[in-house]
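Query structure, 640 tokens:
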């Protein structure tokens, strides 16, 4: 539960229809097993105390009395269990029968949530037995010593961590046009549970899955769906125990149908609350809900959910290829509009033979194709310097020729040497002036060529470099339109690879693949034995780590300790704890200290959920202090 993770379980016990005593024992055993696995919120199916398929037996006093007795036994058996449990049973009140979800915690029944929408179509005939639930909670006596509230306006709030706020709906409620969960979420529930008895027909599982995922996305919530399975009557229909746990549109876990499989996953309530704070259209409100407190012991939740190492890159090949094509389209359409608006028919791109400039050139080619312009209007400029290697130079030249762009070469070494002489900079002194002088000379050349041709300089810098400030101020930091400005380095690689795989040109593909195999480097220091001597990731750290940090910090708003914990899980076996902590500290130091560069970025298209444009996603002061973030990391470093 620390850092917002709460482990949940969806359970489908194998019950006996109408045997409430047996069912109480089986349900209690399932609860104990789920709790032993660390689950703090445990959800069982609709009417599982009696069985959903009792039919007209729901009119029998013996069954209703047995259900109440079974609920008390289940509550008593939960006395030593540190979990909030939801079980389904019929409850009679004021001459009506209600299909309810009972919330149980540490030996007590906390409340009853009745089903709102009672189906009476196709194979369903619940209106024969059950009445729609009331909104305003009413007191219901379960026994001589137990009286609880029953109504749909109930929220169950963790006394020890009020960020965990739970509400319930039942089966058909989710399928209705206006599910109760909408109102629950707007009144503060961030975990929704659904006690269901959805029978199985061909293709129904696909729609059910989309409902659960969609509701969790729409409401920015965790959604735990527990459904009836083997044990229910198969007189006319079959129940598959299609259990699911979702979070903000992502299916965290799903049961294999027809197996009564218990599933577990951790829901990150801090992440959900961060999303809600970020989304201004999430209109929280107060509708007079009763808030019922329940206790849970605060402890660290063992993470079993997958933590994606590359949050900017889709896992599946099909999804990844679709994403790459979409991003290339966004980049090229952005540049197309800018070229149209300015009347430019010439684009100037500095080509180094590295990944970023390669992607920028590919995007520029796409934009020219969209405009119906020949590639000769693309001025591709190579600018060899003190650190340029034969490999990157040859790749740059080959790339330009394969794409049919206009080739220009300007050797910067003489001009930089004269400049260094003018300012008293020794050529043997390989400091930041030595490096940045070359970067600024290249930018000056590109800008002047663009002026000569009435064209536009296309920026090559990517999101990861901007986040770290790994750009020379008014050097490669500057352009007239930055097509890569919201593309992280881990995604740049996939975009270039996708282009290589789909271009249909063997020569071009060979060049692109060699660019992919070349170490990332600004090539501002002299090579050693003809090879790149300055490798970016040796200096600032692995980009796969920094992209992970960037996503968790900027997109999710997580604390340094939580980012560290997630990174340890995601990169277990790849990087040691000390290495992760070292580069995480570097990330925070650079992110805060380099904001002044991001405060004056050129225009560029946003392609994903994270961007650092000062006009769009990141309105951050350039002189913000990083102390509280770095202090938290220092505390982690001091821990044994």
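Result returned for the query:
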């Amino acid at each position: 539960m620390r850092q917002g993770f709460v482990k949940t379980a969806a359970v489908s016990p194998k019950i006996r229809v109408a045997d409430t005593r047996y069912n109480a024992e089986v349900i209690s055993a399932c609860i104990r097993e789920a709790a032993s696995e660390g689950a703090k919120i445990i959800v069982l199916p609709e009417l599982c105390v009696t069985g959903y398929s009792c039919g007209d037996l729901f009119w029998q006093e013996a069954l209703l009395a047995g259900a109440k007795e079974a609920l008390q036994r289940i509550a008593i058996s939960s006395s030593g269990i540190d979990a909030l449990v939801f079980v389904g049973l019929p409850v009679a009140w004021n001459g009506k029968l209600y299909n309810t979800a009972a919330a149980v915690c540490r030996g007590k029944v906390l409340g009853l949530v009745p089903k709102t929408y009672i189906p009476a179509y196709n194979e369903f005939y619940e209106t024969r037995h059950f009445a729609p639930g009331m909104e305003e909670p009413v007191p219901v006596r379960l026994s001589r010593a137990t009286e609880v509230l029953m109504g749909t306006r109930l929220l169950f709030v963790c006394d020890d961590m009020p960020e965990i706020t739970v509400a319930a709906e039942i089966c058909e409620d989710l399928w209705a046009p206006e599910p109760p969960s909408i109102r629950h979420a707007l009144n503060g529930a961030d975990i929704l549970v659904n006690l269901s008895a959805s029978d199985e027909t061909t293709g129904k599982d696909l729609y059910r899955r989309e409902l659960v995922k969609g509701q969790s996305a729409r409401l920015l919530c965790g959604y735990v769906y527990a459904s009836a399975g083997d044990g229910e009557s198969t007189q006319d229909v079959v129940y598959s125990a299609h259990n699911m746990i979702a979070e903000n549109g992502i299916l965290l876990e799903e049961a294999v149908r027809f197996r009564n499989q218990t599933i577990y996953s951790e829901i990150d309530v801090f992440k959900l609350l961060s999303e809600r704070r970020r989304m201004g259209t999430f209109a929280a409100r107060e509708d007079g809900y009763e808030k019922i407190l329940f206790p849970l012991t605060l402890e660290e939740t063992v993470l079993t959910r997958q933590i994606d190492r590359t949050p900017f890159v889709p896992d599946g090949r099909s999804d990844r290829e679709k994403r790459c094509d979409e991003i290339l389209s966004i980049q090229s359409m952005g540049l197309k509009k800018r070229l149209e608006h300015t009347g430019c028919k010439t684009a100037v791109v500095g080509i180094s033979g590295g990944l970023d400039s390669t992607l920028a050139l590919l995007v520029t080619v796409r934009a020219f194709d969209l405009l119906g312009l020949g590639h000769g209007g693309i001025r591709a400029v190579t600018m060899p310097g003190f650190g340029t290697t034969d490999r990157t130079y040859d790749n740059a030249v080959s790339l330009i020729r394969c794409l049919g762009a206009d080739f220009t070469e300007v050797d910067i070494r003489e001009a930089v040497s004269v400049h260094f002489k003018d300012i008293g900079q020794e050529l043997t002194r390989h400091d930041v002036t030595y490096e940045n002088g070359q970067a600024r000379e290249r930018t000056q050349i590109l800008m002047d060529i663009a002026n000569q041709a009435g064209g536009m300089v296309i920026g090559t810098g990517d999101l990861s470099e901007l986040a770290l400030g790994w750009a020379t101020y008014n050097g490669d930091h500057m352009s007239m339109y930055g097509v890569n400005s919201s593309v992280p380095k881990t995604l740049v690689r996939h975009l270039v690879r996708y282009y290589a795989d789909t271009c249909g040109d063997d020569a071009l593909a060979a060049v692109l693949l060699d660019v992919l195999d070349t170490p990332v480097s600004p090539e501002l220091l002299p090579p050693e034995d003809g090879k790149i001597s300055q490798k970016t990731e040796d200096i600032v750290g692995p980009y796969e780590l920094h992209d992970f940090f960037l996503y968790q910090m900027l997109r999710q708003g997580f604390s340094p300790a939580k980012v560290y914990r997630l990174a340890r899980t995601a990169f277990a076996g790849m990087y040691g704890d000390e290495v992760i902590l070292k580069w995480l500290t570097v990330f925070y130091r650079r992110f805060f200290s380099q904001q002044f560069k991001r405060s004056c970025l050129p225009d560029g298209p946003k392609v994903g959920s994270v961007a650092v444009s000062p006009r769009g996603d990141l309105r951050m002061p350039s002189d913000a202090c990083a102390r509280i973030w770095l202090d938290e990391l220092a505390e982690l470093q001091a821990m044994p």
